[in-house]
Design goal:
This protein has one domain: Porin, CATH 2.40.160. It is globular. The longest helix is centred in the N-terminal third of the chain and has 27 residues. It is mostly beta strands and about 350 residues long. The N terminus is likely disordered. A 14-stranded antiparallel barrel has the order 1-2-3-4-5-6-7-9-10-11-12-13-14-15.
């Protein structure tokens, strides 16, 4: 017996040589072909439901959404805690830990973000929501090629392993004696899923454009108690811009748009004012669901961010706020900013 989970909501839940020019042309052709394959897969797969993870500081977790952005800020260790709807019994809690390594940075190269070719990352995320306990592990790999003095073309892939535990003691049903739900009542069930993500991005010191896909295999590679039939194929579009106003102030904008068949499209954005490359204040909005207010600072190799999120519109039935804390440590940065486009992410 399989239990299809529908709508588990959170809250809905210089001049180049001819040889180099030819090489870049071949890379571009390969990217177009890969993108075409990705889009074809996205159109042909019929997907089912899963949870959708929200983060007010989504721009800090870019490699989780798109493996092409692995190493985008250089070699970094990052942790994030999100307590959603504080004070509400059984409210979702999310714990995130990641590490990204750029081998070129390890060698001490001052322009590692532009000259490096590869990066690798590990993302761990643990989620508690309702009767479910989900742990994800993503191993990502990103490759990049320099297409101009300050621009990179990036490609990435990731393997995603998930372990989902269902606590039948916390199950509820709208229909009495529902045989599907009753199969898991008063007992525990565990399911393991292996899936894949992919993406590409164009990154510059002052902007980036990225497109990624999640759950390419739709969760069909699984074992254990299969209480989720499929996971949906997800399209993720991300972009960001940096506008320097003066030597002391910059404006940073980040946007993310997600599409999946079983949930409404998700659009969210945040805008921050960066002062002296050390301190920022910002606001964010997730259309129809939440507003957020953000603050953070950068001190040598350490970056700290906090977001206070309030539900709006479609989330008004649960008015409790959400707190989100983020800490990052740059492993090989020798003070100041030396990543290609890290300032956009702050």
């Amino acid at each position: 017996m399989k239990l299809s989970i529908h709508h588990i909501n959170k809250p809905v839940f210089g001049a180049m040589s001819p040889l180099k020019t030819k090489q870049i042309g071949m890379v571009k052709l390969g990217v177009v072909f890969a993108l075409g394959m990705i889009l074809t897969i996205g159109i042909t797969i019929n997907s089912s439901a899963q949870t959708r993870k929200y983060f007010s500081q989504f721009n800090q977790l870019q490699s989780y959404f798109n493996p092409a952005l692995t190493g985008y800020e250089g070699s970094i260790v990052r942790g994030l805690v999100r307590n959603q709807w504080t004070g509400f019994e059984g409210a979702p809690q999310t714990y995130f830990l990641s590490a990204e390594i750029d081998p070129m940075e390890m060698s001490g190269e001052s322009e590692a973000a532009l000259l490096g070719n590869t990066a690798a990352g590990l993302n761990l995320i643990h989620d508690n929501f309702g009767p479910f306990r989900q742990t994800e592990m993503l191993l990502s790999y990103g490759a990049r090629v320099r297409i101009s003095r300050s621009t990179n073309l990036r490609l990435g892939v990731a393997a995603n392993y998930s372990n989902v535990r269902l606590d039948g003691n916390n199950l509820t049903t709208e229909q009495a004696n529902d045989p599907t739900v009753n199969a898991y009542t008063n007992q525990y069930a565990n399911m393991q899923i292996l899936d894949f993500n992919a993406g590409f991005a164009i990154t510059h010191q002052n902007y980036y454009f990225a497109y990624g896909v999640q759950n390419v295999a739709s969760g069909r590679v699984n074992r254990g108690d299969v209480f989720i039939d499929k996971r949906p194929f997800v399209n993720v579009f991300q972009t960001g811009f940096k506008q320097v106003v003066s030597s002391q102030f910059s404006v940073l904008t980040n946007i993310m748009y997600r599409i999946q068949s079983d949930l409404p499209a998700n659009f969210e954005a945040n805008v921050k004012i960066m002062m002296m490359d050390k301190f920022w204040l910002g606001v964010g909005h997730r259309v129809s669901y939440a507003n957020s207010y953000q603050v953070g600072f950068l001190m040598s190799n350490l970056k700290f961010g906090y977001a206070y999120e309030m539900p709006v519109s479609k989330s008004y039935l649960i008015p409790n706020p959400t707190h989100e804390f983020m800490v990052s440590f740059f492993l090989f940065r020798k003070g100041g900013v030396n990543s290609e486009a890290g300032t956009i992410n702050w």
